[in-house]
Amino acid sequence: MVGLLRALEVTGIEYALVGSVASSAFGEPRATCGLDVVARLSKPLLARLDSLLGADYYFDRDTAEAALRLGGSFNIVSMQSVTKFDFFPVEGDAFGTSQLARRRMAKVDFLTDIEVPVASPEDIVLAKLRWYDLGGRTSERQWSDILGVLRVQRGKLDWGYIEEWGPRLGVAELVSQLPRYT
Questions:
Q1: 46 close to 64: Cβ distance less than 8 angstroms
Q2: Over the stretch 75-122, which tens digit does the pLDDT of each residue have?
Q3: What are 111-116's contacts with CB under 8 Å, separation 24+?
Q4: In the prediction, which pLDDT does 111 show?
Q5: Which domain range does residue 71 map to?
Q6: Is residue 150 part of a domain?
Q7: Could you tell me if residue 182 is inside a domain?
Q8: CB 58 within 8 A of CB 44
Q9: For 149, which of 27, 68, 133, 138 could close a Cys bridge (C-beta 3.0–4.6 Å)?
């Protein structure tokens, strides 16, 4: 796991952990099967990353390059830990670009003993709201992660930012329903 994160750093790939790992870093911890990563990528960076990872990771560079062209995602799997990293390229995605600009360094206890870039608490809430909405508003896990971040970050969130992005992400109604712990 740390090997991939180091490879991203060495390659110069700008990235941030998002998803459940991020919500665990700034909210209430919970187990997860994989790691989600937003990243600024290019074909040359993917080629360099591929050469650094070697046989310790499953990485299909053709699939990754197709994801860049088509605006999709791809994954890299650690062969040792069988941990899956889902990558979401930010090219052409204003929210993904904002997530990278606002990322924070944080230690994720169950992941590594070093600090890694993690999406901000506000961006975690917004992204989780979007996934909750896309999933038909039925995922108790997504909603629980959102509430966990709100409780732990009580009084520290930039609600102006959340309210600005809510309509842009199509989740303004959900933002208006969030409890504002003080």
A1: yes
A2: 999 998 888 999 999 988 999 999 999 999 998 866 667 789 999 999
A3: 111/1, 111/21, 111/35, 112/1, 112/2, 112/5, 114/2, 114/5, 116/5, 116/17
A4: 67
A5: 2-177
A6: yes
A7: no
A8: no
A9: 27
Q: Which residue spans within 84-175 are E strands per DSSP?
A: 84-89, 104-107, 115-118
Strand 104-107 to 14-18 pairing: unpaired
Prediction pTM value: 0.92
Q: How many domains does the chain have?
A: 1
CA distances for 83 relative to 74, 100, 135, angstroms:
14, 23, 24
Q: Which residue has the tokens 């959900």?
A: 174
CATH number of the domain to which 161 belongs: 3.30.460.40
Looking up tokens 């890299």 gives 76
pLDDT for the residue 3: 84
What kind and span of H or E run contains 49? Answer: helix 43-53
